[in-house]
Amino acid sequence: MSEVENEADDAAESADAAESADAAESADAAESADAAESADAAESADAAESDEVADAGRDEIWIEKYRPETLDEVAGHDDITARLKRYVERDDLPNLLFSGPAGVGKTTSAVAIAKQLYGDDWEQNFLELNASDQRGIDVVRDRIKNFARSSFGGYNHRIIFLDEADSLTSDAQSALRRTMEQFSSNTRFILSCNYSSKIIDPIQSRCATFRFGPISEEGVAEQIREVAAEEDIETTEDGVDALVYAADGDMRKAINALQAAAVMGEVVDEDAVFTITSTARPEEIEKMVTHAIEGDFTKARKVLDDLLTNKGMAGGDIIDQLHRSVWEFDLDDEATVRLMDRVGEVDYRITEGANERVQLESLLASLSLEDR
Ligand SMILES: Nc1ncnc2c1ncn2[C@@H]1O[C@H](COP(=O)(O)OP(=O)(O)OP(=O)(O)O)[C@@H](O)[C@H]1O
């Protein structure tokens, strides 16, 4: 939508902000039923991981224990944290949009901003909500309104952090945008999402966008070594490498896997890590593909079967690992391109709900049949 259209839209809305917000809410009523799926997805993923670790006999969850307190402590995003720090220093926070994969520091940075702005009062001035709340978007919006309307402790603004903003439909996002405007005098929004392209333009244009990439291998390794040293956990070099590989840039996954592996045995080595994370060793993926490329479908299928059945891997995870390794196989350019093409196709089909074993076997079969 163009700015001119935005302005016109804004003028119409300002006639009666409360009413338009209510109208938007009723438009969303049907959708709230759809939103009633699982509880807060990020929280429940964390909770599942947390339960696993707690069951293993540890009292404290390391991802929380080692969550950075300040923007300076957030690893691997120096450019972003430098810019965020400037907003905090000037006490001039715009609405923000954080996009990027899971476990890379989006929530952590939002909380760090609040801690730096409000000190000990941060919890009263920071509301964390999940847009995919199972009770529906209208509940989310009610909570936003109640928070934004309640009294302040002498601060100009309070912060509402809305996780998984890209799970909202465009209609719900339009309503959210009106709510953002309604409370723009005293509230700042930090929206978090995996894909900023799923956020409607009128919201994007009202936010400063920050793209959080996956954490670098060195960044993850450094954090793992620090946590292991603090916890007095012995790790081998190949254990750290395996954690870095399994995490694939997701710091939450790396720290959770370290904690889970630590309770399994004395030393965290690659065996412990690959077992606990249900990750295939890169050599296993390579063996499977090499058998297929050499035309031995039966052997390739046996490796696949071991990964799916004995290692308990999900088809989507095998495809992800295959995708990461494609360039490391000893293939000529043409074969690499064909393999990548098939990986893309199978990935799409699995995401759309096709039978993962059938899809992976068909990929191996087509590699086996290729002319060499
Ligand atoms: N950049 C980072 N530096 C240090 N620790 C990090 C970083 N990113 C993530 N972590 C660790 O992982 C945990 C989870 O991170 P966080 O909640 O910020 O992820 P997120 O990007 O918001 O993910 P999601 O999109 O799933 O909500 C933190 O508590 C912290 O322990």
From TrEMBL:
Binding site for ATP: G100, P101, A102, G103, V104, G105, K106, T107
Biased composition range(s): Low complexity: 14-45
Keyword ATP-binding: yes
Keyword Membrane set for record: no
Residue ranges occupied by any AAA+ ATPase domain in the UniProt entry: 92-222
GO biological process: DNA replication
Origin: domain of life: Archaea
Listed Acidic residues bias regions: 1-13
Pfam families from the UniProt entry: AAA (PF00004), Rep_fac_C (PF08542)
GO terms of molecular function: ATP binding; DNA clamp loader activity
Keywords: ATP-binding, DNA replication, Nucleotide-binding
Residue numbers spanned by region Disordered: 1-54
HAMAP family: RfcS
NCBIfam families (UniProt xref): PRK00440.1 (NF001679)
Family: Belongs to the activator 1 small subunits family. RfcS subfamily.
Protein name as it appears in the record: Replication factor C small subunit
Gene name of the record: rfcS
